[in-house]
Amino acid sequence: MNGKKQGGRLWFLTAAASGVMLNPLNSSMISLALNRIQYDFQLSFSTVSWLISSFYLSSVVAQPIMGKIGDYFGKKFIFMSGLALVLVSALGAPFAPTFFLLLLMRLFQSVGSSAIYPAAMSLIRGHIRERQASALAVISVFTSATAALGPTIGGLLVGLGDWPAIFIVNFPIVVISFILGLVFFPRDAKKPQEPFARVMKEMDIPGIALFASGMALLVWFLLSLGERPHVWTGIAGAVLIMAFLRREWRVDHAFIDIRMFRTNGLLGLVLIQFIALNIFNYSLFFGLPSYFQDELHFHVRTSGLMMLFLSGSSTLISLAAGRWVDRSGFKKPLVTGTVCMLAGAVLLPTLFVGASIPVMAAILALVGISYGLGNVSLQAAMIQATPPGMTGTTSGLFQASRYMGSILSSVALGLVFGRQITEAHFRILGVILIGVGAGSCLLNLKLRGRRTEAG
């Protein structure tokens, strides 16, 4: 019986993890295919780069919205629906006759994969009671490892089957996740049928519309900072978000209950700290390869091996972090991860620049450990701080925070490395990351004093 229970847990997690990996995998895998797509459709790079920008933009907006829909209509239903959308893109994108249709398939892929993460987190919270943090660590490994290995996988696939291969590869992953989810995910509880007007009220459609439009404009503004800032877009986005916050404070059935953050300060701190963690991680994830190749003149293979110290140590520590959180809670692993982050940040502009390869590798491993510990700990903290019935929505906000951190890191890199990549510019980036690490330490001091109101 015990073995049967363990087997069920294994297949349950395999279904969830294989689905969850689709979003980070597709967010990074396409980078190696842009050149081929640009050539095939005879486009400028700025046009074809919308395949990346639109994915980030729609992921930030769609994650919490799909989480809310899952909280209302059922987690398994939304998980399977997300897989179906990714399947449509996997089959349709390779045969897209125009770039517009390819971009549409990419949006299907983004929205579909955005639905999967919050649904998976809700399913894990609702149905895995024992060693829950270890289960979350598995999800963390799949999300961080696939994001880190995405460019390498994309390069191999483009070499084997040109750019359509990066879409086709989703097909077997979707099929595996769909079959296992169909068998091992429990059925959604049946909701009593309600009038359409009441459903729309409880879903808070006006709130969703304000959030979606405001976030879309703000993200578009942030993405424009590296070239020609769209100032009015940023102002319009800020106005819409302020209108959204004002509305959510007053309505009974809110898309995101803003009042919850007043009584449950832990959740707000977790989301802010997760943004900071991802600013730190993605600044190095996107910035180091260029620094290695442009300034240090490393071969691309050497650069890839150096990056493995960052991603590999993060992946390896994540499973140990899950067991640690199960034993002692999320606070000690999170503090340890934040201290490692600050230590790594201090070493980057001081010891890392001009160091030997073994020393650089050791510093990158330390930074990777900080991300693995922080990722798993904050994921567990988010689940612990979330009120019952809202796991999908807050998981969506959590994943949206990952993409906000990624976007802000791109802005920072554009400002620091915009014209030239030198040791002096890398030191400037290191100083910025010291500020991010110090800010995370201060957030930890506040977070350690918080009790979880959600239970």
Describe this protein's structure.
The protein has 455 residues and is mainly α. The protein folds into 2 domains: 1-192, Growth Hormone, Chain: A; 263-455, Growth Hormone, Chain: A (Up-down Bundle), CATH 1.20.1250. Helices cover 82% and strands 0% of the residues. It contains 20 helices and no strands. The protein has helices at 2-20, 22-29, 34-41, 45-48, 50-73, 75-92, 99-127, 132-161, 165-168, 170-184, 196-203, 205-224, 231-250, 259-263, 265-295, 300-328, 331-352, 357-385, 391-416, 423-448. Helix 15 runs antiparallel to helix 20. The radius of gyration is 21 Å and the shape is globular. The mean pLDDT is 83.
Helices and strands in order:
Blueprint: H1 2-20, H2 22-29, H3 34-41, H4 45-48, H5 50-73, H6 75-92, H7 99-127, H8 132-161, H9 165-168, H10 170-184, H11 196-203, H12 205-224, H13 231-250, H14 259-263, H15 265-295, H16 300-328, H17 331-352, H18 357-385, H19 391-416, H20 423-448
Helix pairs in contact: 1-7, 1-8, 1-10, 2-7, 2-8, 5-6, 5-7, 5-12, 5-19, 6-7, 6-10, 7-19, 8-16, 8-18, 12-13, 15-16, 15-18, 15-19, 15-20, 16-18, 17-18, 17-20
